[in-house]
Amino acid sequence: MEQGQVIGLHEPNTQSDERVFEPVIGNIREDWDRVRPYIQSLLDDCSNLSFRVEDVYAEVVAEHAVYWKAPEGFVVSTTEVDRFTGRKTFLVWIACAYKKGDRNMLKYYPFFQSVAKQLGMEALEVRTPHEAIQPILLGAGWELDTVVYRLEV
C-alpha cells in the first residue's frame, strides 16, 4: 500500500452533508512532531511496554509497521504470523486518539477489519492492559482470546 493512499471514502451523509474519511497511510516523518507526544504518553501510561518512542518510528520507516492517520488520531499496525499455522493477524499495535472518549476504535474497526481481510489475514487484534476497554469491545462482537499474567523473577 502506498503512503497517503485512501482506502475508502464514504459518500456524503444526506442528513449531515458531511464527508466521512477513513484512515489513510500516512508519512510518519512528516507527522512525527505531532504523533510522538501521544506515543510517549502511551508509554508513560503503560509501564509494561518494552519499546521506546523511537522504536515506533524505526519500525514504520523500515516498513515493519504501518502508520495510519485519521482526523481523530492514528494507528500503527503490524502483521503477526502464527509460527505453527502461518495464519496472519492484523495487530493494532498502537492506537491513539487526539480526544479521548469518542470510541474511535469502534468507529474504525470495520475499516481495519476490511483491510485485514483484503490482505489475507485471519483476524484483527488489539492488546491493552486497560480493563475498561473489555466491555466495549465484547459488546461490539470482539472475543476475549488470552489474558497474560506475569511474575518478575
What does the model show?
The protein has 153 residues and is α+β, with helices and mostly antiparallel strands. The protein has a single domain (24-139), classed as Aminopeptidase. The protein has four helices and five strands; from the N terminus they run βααβββαβα. A five-stranded mixed β-sheet has the order 1-2-3-4-5, sandwiched between helices. Helix 3 links the parallel strand 4 and strand 5 (123-126). Helix 1 runs antiparallel to helix 2 (53-61). The protein is globular. 18% of the residues are buried.
Strand coverage percent: 15-25%
What is the mean pLDDT? 86
Number of β-strand runs: 5
- What do we call the CATH homologous superfamily? Gcn5-related N-acetyltransferase (GNAT)
Element order, helices and strands? EHHEEEHEH
Which CATH architecture? 3-Layer(aba) Sandwich
What is the CATH topology descriptor? Aminopeptidase
Span of the ends, CA to CA: 43 Å
Structural class per helix/strand content?
Answer: alpha+beta
CATH class assignment: Alpha Beta
Q: Please mark out the parts with pLDDT under 50 across 5 or more consecutive residues, or reply none.
A: 1-19
Number of domains: 1
Q: What is the spatial order of strands in the main beta sheet?
A: 1-2-3-4-5
Molecular shape: globular
Largest sheet: 5 strands, mixed
**Secondary structure tally, helices:** 4
- Specify the helix fraction band: 25-40%
Radius of gyration (Å): 16 Å
Brief write-up:
The chain has 153 residues and is an alpha+beta fold.
